Amino acid sequence: MTDCLFCKMVAGEIQPDVVYEDDEILAFRDVNPQAPVHILVIPKRHIATTNDLESEDAALVGNMVLAAKQIAVQEGIDERGYRTLINCNREAGQSVFHIHMHLLGGRAMGWPPG
Ligand code: AMP
Predict the structure, then answer these.
(1) Model confidence pTM above 0.90
(2) Is 100 a catalytic residue?
(3) b/e map of 33-72 (b: 16 or more CB within 10 Å)?
(4) pLDDT (tens digit per residue) in 7-46
(5) How far apart are CA 26 and CA 32, in angstroms?
(6) How far apart are the CA of 73 and the centre of ligand 1, in A?
(7) Which atom of ligand 1 sits closest to the CA of residue 30?
């Protein structure tokens, strides 16, 4: 998608601070971090929201979680704990319509989330 911010990152038109990459996934630091560690894990293929996931995307979503787990080790937050979440649509706070898993850590998290 030519007008998608995260597709531009995948295409190399915008260079984020990449912490992980493989054939199907890119992960980079959030530009407006909400915790000492705040990383976005995205599929390279454009999928707008979790509502658009199909059953054949199961492995991709699982691999996003596994990538987040590996990045948590890299960032040294795996033992302390971290949070992964995907916002879907406006009421949940989704602002970029290319699915992304937030990986947050490095501080104690509150619950329920805002
Ligand atoms: P969400 O609100 O769940 O859609 O999350 C979108 C996230 O993308 C926000 O946390 C933004 O700070 C982040 N973001 C927006 N633009 C950029 C960018 N150019 N580089 C890195 N992160 C970004």
Answers:
(1) yes
(2) yes
(3) eebebbbbbbbbeebbebeebeeebeebbebbeebbebbb
(4) 999 999 999 999 999 999 999 999 999 999 999 999 999 9
(5) 18
(6) 22
(7) 22
Locate the DSSP E strands across 30-92: 37-43, 82-85
Pull the structure tokens for residue 52. 């658009």
> Within 10 A of 16 (CB to CB), how many other CB atoms are there?
18
Alpha-carbon distance 76 to 80, whole Å? Answer: 8
Calpha distance 97→90 (Å, rounded): 10
What separation in Å is there between the alpha carbon of 57 and the centre of ligand 1?
A: 23
Atom of ligand 1 nearest to the CA of 92: 3
How far is Cα 109 from Cα 53, in angstroms, rounded to an integer?
Answer: 28
